[in-house]
Every structure is written in structure tokens, then in C-alpha cells.
């Protein structure tokens, strides 16, 4: 249970904001109790309005790979802000930013800045449709790609959490052009392409899923997407809003040695500011206005303050960051496994680098059908136990937790101890 200050704030919030939150999962509904209202954050810690302190594994849902309020990033933001908050005109900073992102992703020859992951995926889909002159898109059950109409079909994240995978308010005609398959199901993908390959504009995928909890791709799955797209003239889109710059500097594509036609990025590349991007093959990106017929625009796109935070963050993505989170992640994974085994609780720990999920499920989770078998009641009880012990874990079974370079060995020890006690 949360503190009385947060409770009072939540009551006020609910009177003016639907559900009291500006993004659904924040409401803590899936785990019961009230959300903690955060006053500030530093490193691997978040601090509640009542002064309470937590070891944070939400990391702003992904951006905080370097830890919160990294001094260099804050300084870059302050300096940029002094020069004006927004111009709606090109800047040298955004050119440097685009060059820095391109240097990380060999598949990105050209890119556009937008302000959220939703805009990035929505725009990438439009570009793929405009380029191929086809309408059908393929996504995988349990993957979340933001809240654009045609992507809210069998989606993960909050939709999975609240059991409304298909949002109301999406016209039937729109939803019809989105076909869904089970993640990791290569035969189903092959069959779909065999039947309707000529209609498919794009396949969009979270290369490592975070939005149904952490679910890695089985060997060959991502490769099958790339090769089937190539064979049938469809565009492959790796949605690396979450995995980008997290699983490696060059995201899942670097980690697995792959290259998609289009890539969407967000979260880490904005260093905690509203900044995202989509980009990829030059011939495909050249359909974007003013060069081509696909329209996409934004008053705040390439915002100078956001871009400054992003650049400062990208410049600090050194190999040591990834070595550290890998080591911390391995320790956390081993600790959770041991704790669950000793407590006799059916559990599966899945991790790729700094993304980790403790599924209350006795079997490995490879798809939404398997993820949805998890014991969410048990997760809720465990989550409450963790929170009461000062661990701020994502408040849903169907969200990955994130490690940062600011976490320490002591944090991991403390978290494993809390997990042990909370499983009891
Ligand atoms: N794609 C993925 C893979 C995501 O994880 C998210 C957000 N969690 C989005 C897209 C949407 O990004 P945003 O919330 O910035 O709109």
C-alpha cells in the first residue's frame, strides 16, 4: 500500500484525469493499491512525494539506461533550454543527432525525428504502405507498437494488462488491414505470406518483446521475417523503441547481426525527453514529404532540448554500460531463479541483457498464448511485497523490467532479498 500523500494526490488526480493517470499502466490497477506519486529520481532511485525511496526497475519504461538525471544529460538540457525551447526550423543539433543515430544502425540510411514511439511506428507503417502501395500490415499477438488505430489489434502492454487487446474506437475497416500472428510462429508466417504475400505492405515486430513481459525471439524467427519480406516485396519494420540502444548500442539488430528495412526508435535515444525516430533504407525513406508523397510532420519534431538530451545520452553509450547491465542482469536472473526454486513457486525468469521478467508461470514463455497463462494474482501479491520493501517494479506481469548502468551489486542483492521475502 502506498503512502497517504500519494493516496490524496491520486484522489485529486482521478477527479481531473481519466483513471488519475496519463498512461494506463501507471494506475497500478493490475496489482491493486495506489500508484506512488514520484517527486524526483536520481541514478537507480526514484523518490515518492512522501520522501520514500525505491530501487527503480521501471526506468521511465525504458529511457533511463544511464540512470535518472545523469549530470551530463541534465547539463546538456539546461544549455539547450537557455537557447530557446522550440524554433520549428532546422538546427545543427538535429543534424548531429541524425548522424549519431545513423552511426549506430547500419540499416538506417535516413531518419526522421518525431516526438513519441507511437508517432514513429505510425509513420513507419504509412511509409511502408506508401512505398509498396499495399494496405495490409502484419503484427504479432502481444506486441505493442504505440496507440495508433491500426496497431491496437491484439496488442500487448496496458492492453494485455487490462484484457482489452483490441481497443474500442478503432474502425472495423482499419483493424481489418492488420493481420496478427503468434510471435515465434515461423510456419504461420510462411503460410500467411504464401496465401497473401502480394497484399502485405509490412511486418512490424518487437525483435525482443518487452510488452508481454520479456520474450526473446526463437532462433530463425527474425530471420524468417526479413527473408519473407524480401521475397514478397514487403517492408520489414523492427520496432526498437524499447530495445534500441538497450540490447546493444545498435539495439537488437546489432545483438543478432540483422538489418531491417525500417527501424523505429524512442525511449533511450531521447534520454528521457519526448523524442523518437523512424528511419531505414534510403529508397524507402525518400517517399517522405517533401521528397515524396507520404505526409508526416510535427511542430515539435527535432525539438532542440529533446535532441540535446538524446545526443548527450547517445554519446555516453560506451561498451562499459552494456557490460555492466549484462552482469547485473545475470545476477538478478540467477537470484530470482534461486529464490523461486527455494520458495517452491512455479516461475520462469526470462532476460535479454537489461530487460527481465519474472513470469509466474511454470513453463518458458514464447508467445502471448503462453504469457497469458501466468498467475497474475500471484504477481500482484509479489509486486506489493516488493514495493513494501522499497523495490519499484513494473506494476504488471506483462511489462519488462529494466536495469540501468546506475544500478549496483548492492541494489541487486537487496532486490533478490526482497524477491525472496515477497515470494513467501
Ligand atoms: N513501440 C514499443 C516497442 C514500445 O515499447 C512503445 C512504448 N512502450 C511504443 C512503441 C510506443 O511509444 P510511446 O509510448 O513513446 O508512444
UniProtKB/TrEMBL annotation:
It is an enzyme of class 5 (isomerase). Its main location: cytoplasm. GO terms for biological process: protoporphyrinogen IX biosynthetic process. The modification N6-(pyridoxal phosphate)lysine is found at residue 267. Transmembrane segments: none annotated. GO terms for molecular function: glutamate-1-semialdehyde 2,1-aminomutase activity; pyridoxal phosphate binding; transaminase activity. It comes from Polyangium fumosum. NCBIfam families: hemL (TIGR00713), PRK00062.1 (NF000818). Keywords: Cytoplasm, Isomerase, Porphyrin biosynthesis, Pyridoxal phosphate. Pathway: Porphyrin-containing compound metabolism; protoporphyrin-IX biosynthesis; 5-aminolevulinate from L-glutamyl-tRNA(Glu): step 2/2. Coiled coil: none annotated. This is Glutamate-1-semialdehyde 2,1-aminomutase. It catalyses: (S)-4-amino-5-oxopentanoate = 5-aminolevulinate. It is found in: Cytoplasm. One of its GO terms (cellular component) is cytoplasm. Pfam families: Aminotran_3 (PF00202). Its cofactor is pyridoxal 5'-phosphate. Belongs to the class-III pyridoxal-phosphate-dependent aminotransferase family. HemL subfamily. It comes from the Bacteria. Homodimer.
Amino acid at each position: 500500500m502506498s503512502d497517504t500523500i500519494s493516496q490524496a494526490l491520486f484522489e485529486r488526480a482521478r477527479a481531473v484525469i481519466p483513471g488519475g493517470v496519463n498512461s494506463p499502466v501507471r494506475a497500478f490497477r493490475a496489482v491493486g493499491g495506489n500508484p506512488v506519486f514520484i517527486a524526483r529520481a536520481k541514478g537507480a532511485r526514484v523518490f515518492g512525494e512522501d520522501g520514500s525511496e525505491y530501487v527503480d526497475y521501471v526506468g521511465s519504461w525504458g529511457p533511463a539506461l544511464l540512470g535518472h538525471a545523469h549530470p551530463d544529460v541534465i547539463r546538456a538540457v539546461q544549455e539547450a533550454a537557455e537557447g530557446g525551447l522550440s524554433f520549428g526550423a532546422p538546427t545543427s543539433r538535429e543534424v548531429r543527432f541524425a548522424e549519431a543515430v545513423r552511426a549506430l544502425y547500419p540499416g538506417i540510411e535516413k531518419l526522421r525525428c518525431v516526438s513519441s514511439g507511437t508517432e514513429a511506428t505510425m509513420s513507419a507503417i504509412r511509409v511502408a504502405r506508401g512505398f509498396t502501395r499495399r494496405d495490409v500490415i502484419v503484427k504479432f499477438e502481444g506486441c505493442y507498437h504505440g496507440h495508433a488505430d491500426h496497431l491496437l489489434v491484439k496488442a500487448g502492454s496496458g492492453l494485455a494488462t487490462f484484457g482489452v487487446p483490441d481497443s474500442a474506437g478503432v474502425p472495423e475497416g482499419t483493424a481489418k488491414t492488420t493481420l496478427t500472428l503468434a510471435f515465434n510462429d515461423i510456419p504461420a508466417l510462411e503460410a500467411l505470406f504464401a496465401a497473401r504475400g502480394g497484399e502485405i505492405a509490412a511486418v512490424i515486430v518487437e525483435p525482443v518483446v518487452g510488452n508481454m513481459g520479456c520474450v526473446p525471439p526463437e532462433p530463425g524467427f527474425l530471420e524468417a521475417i526479413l527473408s519473407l519480406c524480401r521475397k514478397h516485396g514487403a517492408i520489414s519494420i523492427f520496432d526498437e523503441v524499447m530495445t534500441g540502444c538497450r540490447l546493444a548500442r545498435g539495439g537488437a539488430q546489432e545483438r543478432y547481426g540483422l538489418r531491417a528495412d525500417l527501424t523505429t526508435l524512442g525511449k533511450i535515444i531521447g534520454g528521457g525527453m519526448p523524442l523518437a525516430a523512424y528511419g531505414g533504407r534510403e529508397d524507402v525513406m525518400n517517399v517522405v514529404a517533401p521528397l515524396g508523397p507520404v505526409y508526416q510532420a510535427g511542430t515539435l519534431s527535432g525539438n532542440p532540448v529533446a535532441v540535446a538530451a538524446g545526443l548527450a545520452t547517445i554519446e555516453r553509450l560506451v561498451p562499459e554500460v552494456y557490460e555492466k547491465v549484462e552482469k547485473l542482469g545475470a545476477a538478478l536472473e540467477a537470484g530470482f531463479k534461486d529464490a523461486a526454486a527455494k520458495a517452491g513457486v512455479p516461475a520462469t525468469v526470462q532476460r535479454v541483457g537489461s530487460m527481465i521478467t519474472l513470469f509466474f508461470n511454470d513453463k518458458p514463455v514464447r508467445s502471448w498464448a503462453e504469457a497469458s497463462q501466468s498467475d497474475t494474482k500471484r504477481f500482484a501479491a509479489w509486486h506489493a511485497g516488493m514495493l513494501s520493501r522499497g523495490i519499484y517494479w513494473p506494476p504488471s506481469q506483462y511489462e519488462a523490467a529494466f536495469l540501468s548502468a546506475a544500478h549496483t551489486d548492492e541494489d541487486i542483492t537487496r532486490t533478490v532479498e526482497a524477491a525472496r521475502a515477497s515470494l513467501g
